[in-house]
Amino acid sequence: MSSKTEEASSSSLWNVLRNARISTKITAVYAVILFMLLTVGISAMALGVYYAFYHQAEIAIDLSEQQTVAKLEAGADFTPSFWNDDPVLPGVVLRVTDITGRIVFENDSHFPSLQDIEANTRKRPPFWANQSMDVADIGNSTIYHATVDIMHGGSIYRLHFLRTITAESAFLKDTQHFLLFLTVSGFLIALCAGYFLSRRVLRPIRTMMATARSIEVEDMSRRIEVPPSHDELHDLAVTFNHMLDRLQTGFSQQQRFVSDASHELRTPVTVILGYSDLLARWGQTDADVLKEGISSIRSEAENMQQLIEKLLFLARADQKRQVLHKENIELSELVEDVMRKMKLVTKKHTVTLEKNEPGTIYADPVMIRQMMRIFLENSAKYTPDGGHITANCVHHGKYMLLSLGDDGIGIAPEEQQKVFERFYRVDTSRTKAEGISGTGLGLSIATWIAEQHDIRITMDSALGKGTTIHLAIPCVDG
Fold first, then answer.
1. Contact 441/314 with Cβ under 8 angstroms?
2. Domain limits of the chain?
3. Beta bridge partners of residue 468, listed in sequence order
4. Residue range 25-175, CATH number
5. pLDDT digits (tens, 9 = 90+) for 371-408
6. Fewer CB within 10 A of the terminal residue: the chain, N end or C end?
7. 3-class DSSP assignment, residue 96
8. Domain 232-318 adopts which CATH fold?
9. Which pLDDT tens digit goes with each residue over 278-326?
10. Which of 3.30.565.10, 3.10.310.40, 3.90.320.10, 3.10.450.350 is the CATH number of 327-474?
11. Does the pTM of the predicted model rise above 0.70?
C-alpha cells in the first residue's frame, strides 16, 4: 500500500513539474544541480579533512610499529636505553603489556589508560579509518589504537601503539554542522535568487504571450516590443513580428480576395436575376424579349463559370493541391500549336509567329499552354482592331526565351507590377470606353504557373505603344 502511495506521489510531483512554468522548471533544474554540487563539494571537503587526520595518525603508527619491531628483533630490551634511537615517532604512545595485561613498559604514563580506551572504542569505526586499528573517543579526543603481539626473551608481549587523531572532535563536529547549515542556507538563497532571476530573464516571453493573446484577426496591428539586447529573445521577438506581418498580409489578401470575388459574382447574379424577372413578366408573349433574356443569361452564366473555375484553380494552388504532370516537351511544337489556334479564333488582329527555335523543356504541357493563352488573350483584349500580336521563341544558353507582344494600349509603369495581383485591373477611361472587362485573375494564374516551372517573367510596356511579355524558361538541353 505504501509503495503505491509513493508511486502516486512521485507521479503527481512529476506532473506538477511537467506542467509548471518554464521559470519554475529552470529553477528546479538549477536547484537540483546546485544541491548536488554543494553536497558533493561539502562532503568531499569534510571527508578530505577527516581522511587527512586519520591518514597522518595511521602513517605515524605504522612507522613506529615497524621501527619498534625491528629494534626488538635486533635484541634490544625494554630498558630506558630503548628510547635512545627514537623508534617511536613523536605523538605516538607505546605501551607494552605481558600476557596478564600488566604494563611492563611505556613512554607516556599520562596518556589515557588502556581500560578507558578499550571502554570507549567504537564498535563501528568510520569507513575512512584503517580497519586493522581501533578508534576510541575520549573527551574531545579521537585516538587510534593498534596492537602487535611479539615473542621477546622467551615471553609473549603485546605492543600497544596509541596516537591521538585529533584533540578537537567537538570543533570538527561544530564545523561539520556549520558547513551543513551553510550548504542549506546557500541552497535556499541560490534557489530564491535563481527563481527571481529566471522570472526576470523570461519576463519578455510573458510580455510576448500577453501581446499574442491580445491580437485578434480583426486587429493585427499590434506588435511585440523588441528587447534592446541582441540575444535569443530579441531574435524571437523579431521573428514573431515578421510572422505577424506575414499573417496580416495574408489576412488582408484573403479579405480582399473574398470581397473582390463577391463583387465579381454579384454582377452576373444581378444580371441573371434581372433578366429572369423580365422573362417572367414579358418573355411568354414577346419573342424578342425571350431571345434577349436567354442570350444574356447564358452569357453571364458562362462568365460566372469561368470566374468560378479560376477561383477554384487559385484555391487549389494556395492549398498546394494543384497537381502538375511534368514531362520533357518540345517547346517549339507547343508554341506553334498555340499560335495556330490563336489565328483561328482572332479575326480582328494579325497574329504572327516570327521566330520559333527548337528547345526541350521539362514542364506540364497543359499548364504551359494555359499560361501562353492567358498572355495572348490579354493581348487580344487590350489591342484595338487591326493591331498585331507576335511571338518569338529563341534558344539562349540554359533558357528558352519566349516573347509575346502586341501594339495595344499598353500599361503605365506604376501599374506594371500590380497587374499580376489578383482581381487587379487597369482602371482607365479608355478601357471603360472600349468595353474591355475581365476578372483580373488570369495573370495571377499565369504567375503561379511560371513559379512552378522556375520561369522568370519580365515586362516591357508603355502607354499607347503596346506590351511585350518575356518568359525565360529553363531548358533541358541547355
1. yes
2. 25-175, 232-318, 327-474
3. 405, 460
4. 3.30.450
5. 999 899 899 988 999 999 999 999 998 999 999 999 99
6. N
7. strand
8. Helix Hairpins (1.10.287)
9. 788 776 777 777 888 888 888 778 777 877 787 777 777 777 788 889 9
10. 3.30.565.10
11. no
